[in-house]
């Protein structure tokens, strides 16, 4: 009798492990407001992953719970994350477009026993704020160091930097300036502008007056970047021979139709082009375009989200669906795969992706659409910003 009872208890315990539990993943991002296309890209990447790989890991169903955060707002980010953990019982937090939002949530992770998979926020230091952060996007150090190398190789000697005054902007400025100066270049002026800036004409005048041969710029992708590049064109900087240098945030694919021919020939450095030529990317783009609806809206946050889902699925598999954040994160350290962007791996120390960064040029396809054509590869880059962030 006692034996039977024990067997029954064991069977119940087993079914608790292998039975169909629903694992919830809370995704925070801008799904409305001026940055809504960026959030839409998170969702397209997630939908593409689930369309190609199913909505189950083993016996466990995976459910995505979305929370809208229209603009950078750390207090609201924290409140949304708390709500997802306490009320929705999510086992994973993911998404996070803006750095300040990701930063505000890192102090909650350990007590909540929840890993955070960052699908965009790109300031190097975020991963140092909690051992439970894993990032599948890029950093501004990764993308800006190669741009400084490109500037030097082109014989440019004097640059003015213009960045949004917050984490990733400061990283971009520091990464570019440090690398460019080490190679003998000169930074004639460094401008930091508020994140809320929409009138860029006064800045373009400063660029003209600075005596620089080129401007290096970073702003977070969205209406900001579109406005900045339009202003560069409209204020005659190109005509004045001032070259434009930037990470790929400035020429995201969803901005290209509005920029039109004025963007042709603009070169940027980035981890992902929708036009990346590989079977993995073809498969991804097809699924992500079906998910997003309007193919012209597909842009880089989708690939951060797609790879983020791969990482979360691996975490669910490694923990058998049980909530164990440390074990989940340990399971993905060193993980390597072929991403739609190219080969990637998770550096066990930084928990950030080692990946190729590409120099790209805005080009026009035979069908009249614009794309970022990859023309040079900086292979296998770890985050050069990690040392600076410590
Ligand atoms: C960030 O806030 O970390 C961020 C946002 C948009 C970008 C890059 C970085 O394009």
Describe this structure in words.
The chain has 390 residues and is of the alpha/beta class. The chain folds into 2 domains: 22-138 and 277-351, Response regulator (Rossmann fold); 141-270 and 358-389, 3-Layer(aba) Sandwich (Rossmann fold), CATH 3.40.50.2300. Helix content is 41%, strand content 23%. Strand 7 (158-164), helix 7 and strand 8 (186-193) form a beta-alpha-beta unit. The chain is globular, with a radius of gyration of 22 Å. It binds P-hydroxybenzoic acid (PHB). Residues 97-99, 120-123, 168, 220-221, 249 line the site of P-hydroxybenzoic acid.
Radius of gyration: 22 Å
In which range does the helix fraction lie? 40-55%
Give the uncertain stretches in residue-range form.
4-18
Structural class: alpha/beta
Number of strands: 15
- Tell me the series of helices and strands, N- to C-terminal: HEHEEHEHHEEHEHEHEHEHEHHHEEEEH
Mean pLDDT level: 95
CATH superfamily of the largest domain: Response regulator
Percentage of residues in DSSP E strands:
15-25%
What's the shape? Answer: globular
Number of domains: 2
Number of helices: 14
CATH architecture descriptor text of the largest domain:
3-Layer(aba) Sandwich
CATH topology of the largest domain: Rossmann fold
Protein name: ABC transporter substrate-binding protein
GO biological process, one term: amino acid transport
Pfam families: Peripla_BP_6
Family: Belongs to the leucine-binding protein family.
């Amino acid at each position: 009798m006692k034996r039977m009872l024990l067997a029954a208890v064991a069977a119940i315990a087993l079914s608790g492990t292998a039975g169909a539990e629903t694992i919830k993943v809370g995704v925070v991002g801008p799904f409305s407001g001026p940055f809504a296309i960026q959030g839409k890209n998170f969702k397209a990447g997630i939908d593409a992953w689930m369309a190609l790989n199913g909505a189950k890991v083993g016996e466990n169903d995976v459910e995505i719970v979305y929370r809208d955060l229209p603009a950078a707002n750390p207090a609201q980010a924290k409140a949304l994350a708390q709500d997802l953990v306490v009320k929705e019982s999510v086992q994973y937090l993911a998404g996070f477009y803006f750095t300040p939002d990701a930063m505000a949530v890192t102090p909650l992770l350990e007590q909540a026993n929840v890993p955070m998979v960052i699908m965009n926020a790109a300031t190097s230091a975020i991963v140092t704020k909690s051992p439970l952060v894993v990032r599948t996007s890029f950093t501004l150090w990764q993308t800006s160091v190669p741009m400084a190398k490109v500037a030097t190789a082109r014989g440019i000697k004097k640059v003015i930097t213009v960045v949004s005054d917050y984490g990733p902007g400061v990283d971009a400025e520091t990464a570019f300036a440090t690398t460019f100066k080490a190679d003998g270049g000169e930074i004639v002026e460094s401008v930091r502008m508020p994140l809320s800036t929409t009138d860029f004409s006064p800045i373009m005048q400063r660029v003209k007056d600075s005596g620089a041969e080129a401007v290096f710029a970073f702003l977070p992708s969205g209406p900001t970047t579109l406005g900045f590049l339009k202003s560069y064109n409209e204020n005659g900087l190109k005509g004045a021979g001032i070259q434009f240098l930037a990470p790929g945030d400035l020429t995201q694919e969803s901005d290209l139709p509005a920029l039109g021919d004025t963007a042709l020939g603009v070169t940027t450095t980035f981890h992902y082009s929708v036009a990346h030529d590989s079977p993995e990317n073809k498969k991804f783009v097809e699924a992500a375009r079906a998910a997003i609806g309007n193919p012209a809206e597909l842009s880089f946050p989708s690939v951060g989200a797609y790879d983020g889902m791969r990482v979360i699925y691996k975490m669910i598999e490694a923990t058998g669906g049980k909530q164990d954040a440390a074990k989940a994160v340990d399971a993905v350290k060193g993980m390597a795969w072929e991403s739609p962007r190219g080969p990637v791996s998770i550096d066990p120390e930084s928990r950030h992706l080692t990946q190729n960064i590409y120099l790209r040029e805005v080009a026009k396809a035979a069908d009249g659409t614009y794309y970022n054509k990859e023309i040079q590869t900086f292979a296998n880059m770890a985050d050069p910003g990690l040392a600076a962030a410590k």
